[in-house]
Amino acid sequence: MIKRFIDGMKTGERRRVFYALIGGKALGLALLFLIIAGIPHYFGHHAFADDAAAPPPAYVNPINTMWTLVTAFLVFFMQAGFMFLEAGFARTRETVNVLLEGIVDTCLCGLLFWAFGFAFMFGAGNGFIGHQYFFLHGAPDTYGSSGVAILAFFLFQYAFADTCSTVTSGAMIGRTGFVGDLVYSFFVSGFIYPIFGHWAWGPDGWLNTIHPAAFHDFAGSTVVHTIGGMVSLAGAIVLGPRIGRKFKRDGGGPMPGHDMTIAAVGGVILWFGWYGFNPGSTLSAMDFQGIGRIAANTTLAACAGGLGAMFWMYPRNKVWDCGMTINGFLAGLVAITCPCYWVSPFGAIVLGGIAGPVCCLWVDLMEYLRIDDPVGAVAVHGAAGIWGTLSLGLFATGQYGAPTPTGADNSAASVVTGLFYGGGVNQLIGQAIGSAAIGGATFVGSLLMMYFVKITVGLRVSKEGELEGLDLHEHGGGAYPELVGSAHGFVLPDETTATATARAVVPSPAT
Hints:
- Helix content is 62%, strand content 1%.
- Strands 1-2 form a two-stranded antiparallel sheet.
- The chain is mostly helical.
- It folds into two domains: 2-43; 63-455, Ammonium transporter fold (Orthogonal Bundle), CATH 1.10.3430.
């Protein structure tokens, strides 16, 4: 090899190629070092500077910052719950696809939220979009007057954004191409969620000043869950149903999931994560009364939602339905997310108990409209999110105002009162305006986005790929390699691919 190199260097052409290669590599290394030196200088927050070890300013509250971080970790752990829940409700042949989508959505969302999502959502701008803190550049030590370090607040809100993005994938299981999933996730995490979320949670969002009462959404029944539900609805409509999906109107029924065990465990993990989702939204460990009230209300609404769905379903089927019970307690959790700070434990039980049947009825509506939603994402997050947002205008007790770093601001101007506690319909109207504005804009924007993905990179996997199974077609193997047969997207040793494909389209038994 050395002799060949020496002989080659005797010719002028070979020497020119060699010098060009060496020069190009040197130039590339120089450019790389320049980027490494320049990015931290421009994009880096001063928290990464040499004075990072200095004591925090007096207005940074270490206790509240630590509380926000711990609850951010709880919310982040909800990704494990989503992956379990969706995988359990899916078929075996698309399990790896569900798991990888959850992982990739989490990675993609983090970078997009750092680059511009956080700026769109929480930067000052106008009533519709923020334009501060791109790449977290120029961000202050704390977020607003919360006393919480800005990077802790960023991490907490990133976990929320990731939740919204992951909700969508549940309604699109089994037939979404992986490239299409990446593209729509880019738009959801980078634009749809932060821009429409700014309307309610931005420092100058227009829903904060509407009449007759400002819109309130404490932890995201609308901002996280209705947005996720409406994106899910748009995706399910544009995709169409899975091959072999036969609806009840046509003599069929839902395709059963492959593992109710991991679906149930995933649901309970989500319930656990909600103790970060709702109490963490105080951004204050000092608000001990608010945290306790929120955690209790969250628990009671989930309990009532699960039992409400189970007892609602029993007269119809004469069986105790595990899947709908799981979705019922999740619907209760989604519903309480908006009003959890302002309602009593009794109000939480009532609104959670209503959320369970609301979820069941919405599942029926989706079945009637022939919209295929394998996990019930639209019912759980969309319908229950709308109900929970409206319920604040009914059940707010009139005892508590806006949360502050030290507790509730219970001044007369800040207190939130619902219709059933003598507050009239003003707050209910404000909630309806906010829910309709964000939900409607999200649905329209998501439809346009999904159709754009469909006509460009493609949203749905090919018919052959769907029949083969997404795990094998998109990812090269399944989650359960010891399970073989056409039902799992594999070919039995003694049959042809055509035979396996023909058998794979046989509809699953109705449930």
